[in-house]
Design brief:
single chain, alpha/beta, Rossmann fold, 2 domains, 13 helices, about 20% strand
Length: about 270
């Protein structure tokens, strides 16, 4: 979906702004196009787009260090020469740098143990809107070091950092920059992870989260929502709150998925099998 020509200069300005230049161009274009449908006023469009970007990306960054700063830390030769177990512990500390993974730290071992205890051996993972989840996966998923991991997210600096991370720990993994508003990438995997990202997509564009869910191709999936209420607003200032737990209970009951629901202090998880 392309923005109108009238707003191409606005898109250009946004892509050269410090806080937005790492983002996928099509994501910014999509947000501008959507905002332009609600208002033709450039200031209102800019305000709407900046708010959407903050909710989708910048709100999850923790601390002053950029992901490129973290990549420099991974490149420290004194760390890189240590045994792989020590490098893994060193990298796990980075989970505190992303709000979503930081929230999960108090129960992270139990989280992955309970999820994967009900799944067969997994050889490949597709992680959509991954954040820093790949770091946790390597540390806490059974045979995490032996599987192939494909991670997808919006910021290029995060993608580059994750590729450095995979190399740092000698892992079979690839991080890709992708705009999930355009749908899920055409990639096969045993397991798809969509962790707490559906409400984020729905805030950016109504229906975007459901589209990504419907495009899951793998035989197994893990889909989660923030708790306790798992409620959030869809896009649009007048949109009412949505109870995603109730909504996806109904979606799953009418689907071909076999679903197991797990509850954690701040997250509701569906473990899905076809």
């Amino acid at each position: 979906m392309e923005p109108t020509q009238d707003f191409s200069e606005l898109v250009e300005r946004l892509t050269h702004t410090k806080n937005y230049r790492e983002l996928d161009l099509s994501f910014i274009e999509r947000l501008v196009s959507n905002a332009a449908k609600a208002s033709s006023d450039e200031k209102e469009i800019l305000k709407s787009v900046k708010h959407a970007i903050h909710q989708a990306v910048n709100a999850f960054r923790v601390g002053e260090d950029s992901y490129r700063d973290l990549a420099i830390q991974l490149g420290d030769h004194a760390i890189h020469d240590r045994p792989v177990e020590e490098r893994q512990l060193y990298a796990a500390d980075f989970l505190r740098r992303h709000a979503s993974s930081k929230e999960r730290l108090p129960f992270i071992r139990r989280y992955y143990q309970e999820i994967f205890s009900g799944l067969p051996p997994i050889r490949s993972i597709l992680d959509l809107g991954c954040g820093l989840n790949p770091i946790a996966a390597v540390s806490f998923i059974p045979n995490g070091r032996d599987l192939h991991y494909t991670a997808v997210d919006l910021p290029l600096d995060l993608v580059d950092f994750l590729n450095d991370f995979f190399q740092f720990l000698d892992l079979s993994g690839t991080a890709l920059q992708g705009n999930l508003l355009n749908g899920a990438p055409d990639i096969d995997a045993d397991l798809t992870l969509i962790q707490k990202i559906i409400p984020v997509l729905e805030r950016s564009e109504t229906g975007a989260g459901r589209r990504v869910f419907d495009e899951i191709r793998s035989p197994f999936a893990v889909v989660s929502f923030p708790a306790p209420a798992a409620k959030a607003k869809r896009s649009g200032s007048a949109a009412s709150s949505v109870d995603f737990e109730t909504e996806y209970d109904a979606i799953l009951s009418a689907s071909g998925w076999d679903s197991t629901k797990l509850r954690y202090p701040n997250e509701i998880v569906y473990v899905l099998k076809r």
